[in-house]
Amino acid sequence: MFLLKFKYAFAIAMSIGFMLAAGCATVPGKSLQIGYDQQSGAGEWPDKKLEEQFREYWFKRFSGLIEDAYIMESSSFRELYSLTKYRNYVQYTSRSRLIKIEIHDIQKVSEYLIKIDYAMLLETGDVKPIEVSAADRWVYSDGKWYHVIRDPFFPT
Does the structural domain 28-148 have CATH classification 3.10.450.100? Predict the structure, then answer.
């Protein structure tokens, strides 16, 4: 009986070791390539945690981890829109491969609201990658940064 428990524990320990060695336990988004527009002076994050959240959010969106990305949306958005509606709105991102994000500008709108202008280089299956310009807003609430998605159903 003891030998059986030992073999089971050994197998679990080995599995965890292989996962760590393979990088399965890495922090999402750490490998996401982010560049900075040197002419605009972009690259000064007002909070290191915001930079980490930004990386993690886009990593999750393009990795198909929609439920995990949904949790990173602002609470006001999640109160209005279900995970199903969100999944339908953002499903296109898992069909593309995010190559790089280049930050053009980071604006501190207020102490609790940051606007980030950037461009994404995407591989969509076409002959060459395409560049898509975008702007994100992030709100600080309850000690954490949350993505503020543009309202998909009532755009302004």
Answer: yes
